[in-house]
Amino acid sequence: MPTLTAPPPPAALARRLPPLPPALDLPAVSFFGRSLAEYTQFFALDVAALRSRDVLDVAAGPSSFVAEACRRGVAAVAVDPLYGDTVAALAARVQGDYDHMFAQMRAKRRLFKVGLRLPAFFPSIDAAEADRRAAAQRFLADYEAQRLYGRYVGAVLPRLPFFDGTFDLVLCAHLLFTYAQRFDFDWHLAACRELVRVSAGEVRLHPVCGVDGKPYAALARLRRELREAGIASELVRVNYEFFVGSDSMLVLKKAVS
Ligand SMILES: C[S@@+](CC[C@H](N)C(=O)[O-])C[C@H]1O[C@@H](n2cnc3c(N)ncnc32)[C@H](O)[C@@H]1O
User: Fold this and answer.
1) Residue nearest to atom 17 of ligand 1 (CA)
2) What pLDDT, in 10s, does the model give residues 67-98?
3) Where are the beta strands (DSSP E) in 16-130?
4) Ligand 1 centroid to 175 CA: how many Å?
5) Nearest ligand 1 atom to alpha carbon 33
6) Paired sense of beta strands 167-173 and 54-58, if any
7) Measured between alpha carbons, how far is 60 from 152 in angstroms, rounded to an integer?
8) Three-state secondary-structure class, residue 138
9) Radius of gyration (Cα) for the chain, nearest Å?
C-alpha cells in the first residue's frame, strides 16, 4: 500500500516561503515620480493613440510623464498639491524624498522584483534609481518652462478644478491604494468619483496594492459603492511589476445606463 507523505507542518512551510519584509516606512506621501516609459507599462498605454487627446495625470509629483507626453503631441496636464512651489523648493523635496525612498528600497529589497524581462521593469535597484532621478530632472526642467502656461495645476483630491468630462483619459498612480492607510474609505470613494467626474472616457488607477505589497483591503466595498454611484470598474492585469503585487490597475468608467 503506497504511503502518503504528510503535508509539511506550518512551521516548515514558513521556512520555505519567507514572509515579505515589512512595508516601506514612508513618513508622508513621497514627492517621487516615474517616467513615461514606466507609466506606459503600468497603465498599458498606447501613447501614439493619445496624440491630440486630453490626458490628466493626478498626483503627478515629479513624474516626467506629462513633460514627455506633451513632447509627443498629447495634450497632457498634471495635478499635484505641491505645484505652485518654486522649482528650487520642488528640487529640494525631490532630493530629500528620493534619498529616503532609495534607502528604504535597498533596506527592503525583497519587496521589489528586478530582472531583465517584463514584468520586472528594472534590472536592479541602481537602475531604477538612475532612471527615476533622470525622470525627476526632466520634470523639473519642464515645470520651470511650463508652470506659467497651465500645464502644472496645484490641486488636492478629492476636489479637482476642472469641468465635468474635460479629459479623454485620467491617470492616477501611486497615491490612492499605495497610501491606503493615510486616507479613509470615504476619501477613497470621493477621490474616485471626482476622477470619474472630470473624465469623458476612463480613469486608470495603479497600483491596487499598498506599500506592504498587499491588495487594497476595501477594494470589494469600493467597487460596490462605485457601482451604486453609476461607475463601472474593472481590475486589469498589466505586464509590469516592480513593487511586489503592483501587477494590475483599476479602470473606472461611467456605467452605461
Ligand atoms: C508617490 S507620488 C506619485 C507620482 C506619480 N503619480 C508617479 O506614479 O510616479 C504621490 C504624489 O501624490 C501627491 N499627493 C498627496 N496627497 C494628494 C492629494 N490629496 N491629492 C492629489 N495628490 C496628492 C504628492 O504630492 C505626491 O507628489
Assistant:
1) 156
2) 999 999 999 999 999 999 999 999 999 999 99
3) 54-58, 75-80
4) 5
5) 9
6) parallel
7) 9
8) helix
9) 20
pLDDT digits (tens, 9 = 90+) for 211-242: 888 999 999 999 999 999 999 999 999 999 99
Measure the N-to-C terminal CA separation of the chain; round to a whole number of Å. Answer: 63
Segment 48-57, tens digit of pLDDT:
999 999 999 9
Chain position carrying cell 483591503: 217
CATH code that applies to domain 30-254: 3.40.50.150
CA 60, 63, 67, 72 torsion-angle sign? negative
Question: Which cell goes with 107?
Answer: 533596506
DSSP string over 109-134: GGGB---SSTT---SSHHHHHHHHHH
Rounded CA gap, 247 and 41, in Å? Answer: 10
- Angle at alpha carbon of residue 23, lines to 128 and 44, rounded to 5°: 50
Tell me the backbone φ, ψ of residue 111, rounded to 5 degrees. -80, -5
CB of 111 within 8 A of CB of 20?
Answer: yes
Residues with a CB atom less than 6 Å from ligand 1: 29-34, 58-61, 63, 80-82, 156-157, 173-175
